[in-house]
């Protein structure tokens, strides 16, 4: 199963793409959040055997996709 969400904010800079799931990584000014959300989300999804990925949509904006395996018996 895969769920994707796209925002209408600016795309993710190519130089930032490899760091966006790192704890405390931010492109925001100091004092505008702890920037743990993507890191926490990435690790929760990973713990359930899934993958959280990010890419830039063709028309602009960031897109995040959650891929999870179905559990046995479903």
Describe the structure.
A three-stranded antiparallel β-sheet has the order 1-3-2. The model has no long low-confidence stretch (mean pLDDT 89). It has a single domain (2-67), classed as Heat Shock Protein 90, CATH 3.30.565. With 74 residues, the protein is an alpha+beta fold. A hairpin with a 5-residue loop joins strand 2 and strand 3 (62-67). It has one helix at residues 37-47, and strands spanning 2-6, 51-56, 62-67.
Rounded to the nearest angstrom, the radius of gyration is 14 Å
Instruction: Please give the CATH architecture.
Output: 2-Layer Sandwich
Helix fraction by DSSP (H/I, runs of at least 4): 10-25%
CATH topology: Heat Shock Protein 90
Count of the separate structural domains: 1
Largest sheet: 3 strands, antiparallel
Question: Residue ranges: pLDDT <50 for 5 or more in a row?
Answer: none
CATH homology superfamily: Histidine kinase-like ATPase, C-terminal domain
List keywords for this structure.
single chain; 74 residues; alpha+beta; Heat Shock Protein 90; three-stranded antiparallel beta sheet; 3 strands; globular
Chain-wise SSE layout:
Layout: E1 2-6, H1 37-47, E2 51-56, E3 62-67
Antiparallel strand pairs: 1-3, 2-3
Offer a concise description of the structure:
With 74 residues, the protein is α+β, with helices and mostly antiparallel strands. Helices cover 15% and strands 23% of the residues.
